[in-house]
Amino acid sequence: MSPRAVYRHVTHTIRHAPEGGITYEAFCTAANCGAESGPLAEQEAAQDWALRHTGRTGHDLFRRVVTDHAKVTRAE
Predict the structure, then answer these.
(1) Residue 75: CB partners within 8 Å, gap ≥ 6?
(2) What burial class does residue 47 get, using C-beta atoms within 10 Å of its C-beta: 0-12 exposed, 13-18 middle, 19+ buried?
């Protein structure tokens, strides 16, 4: 008798996990700058960093990153 495999397809959901929080970051994209805000807990803090950086340097283009955490749970 040969071994058999049984596969069971189970539905899962993925949702924001509040306990993981959200972080906001801004990165200056001006040539040879490389400045970044670092991860911040508040969106306004990342925006304020970008505004201050523009005031000091004149750099006016940023990449913004919002990171959250997600939890996958079995939908039974």
Answers:
(1) 10, 11, 12, 13
(2) middle
Amino acid type, 1: M
Residue by residue, pLDDT tens for the chain (76 residues) are 678 888 888 999 999 999 989 999 999 999 999 999 999 999 999 999 999 999 999 999 999 999 999 999 998 7
Q: Is 12 helix (H, G, I), strand (E, B) or coil?
A: strand
Tell me the two tokens of residue 43: 């969106």
CA 59, CA 39: separation in Å to the nearest integer?
20
Model confidence, pTM = 0.76
